[in-house]
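From the shared-data thread, chain only:
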Amino acid sequence: MKRKFAVFDIDGTFFRSHLFWEVVLELANREILHPKLNEYTVDMYDKWKRRANKRAFEDFDYGVVNELKELVTELDPVIYDSVVKKVIESKLDHVYTFSKGLLKELKGKGYFVIAISGSRQEEVDIFAPYHGFDDWIGQKFERSADGKKYTGNIEATYKDKHITLEKFVKKHDLTYEGSYAIGDTGGYISMLDVVDNPIAFNPNHLLLEHAQKNGWKIVLERKSIVYTLEAQDGSYLLAKTDV
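Structure, as tokens:
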């Protein structure tokens, strides 16, 4: 019999931050990320934390990522490797209560649990097995044969997540029947669209609008309280509070 599955986003859905950001910020704060990126990264992050403007988050998120991609062949993977394990291991338990509980519940029912992350594979390889995921994937920055340089080739995981998911389904002979998916941004819509039980978790505007239109479950977690919203007469109302 084919196993049912649940697929999780990690950054902002399971982990209370972004694995990739944590490593990049550590390098930038120590001024060893890249001469063109150290100050820019710290400055963009500070503006986001201060909510300096409506696009402060996007400026930090997309801006730093795009700059990194432009300079990837100039980055030193050896320096990156020197901090990634220490940084990620120090934050392994910084996770959301709802997502952690959902994973535990579904694993207990025999579900195969998958993680699809926009963070790098090196970070996900530390985080995912710690939390009991059965298989996972992150972005892959290709390295030279000696491992001392990035070639510039990147295997992205931030788009077409339904295609990535289908590869897992075929690889492990899984079934979509009774399947779950949980994500927090519009980038996960294609993945949520193909499962039986989609969950929009702390959704951004794009995902929230799509979830409302399609009647998906919407979950908000603030501090130690989890709010579940449900559709009623054309609007969403607070339906349940779990502690």
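The radius of gyration is 18 Å.
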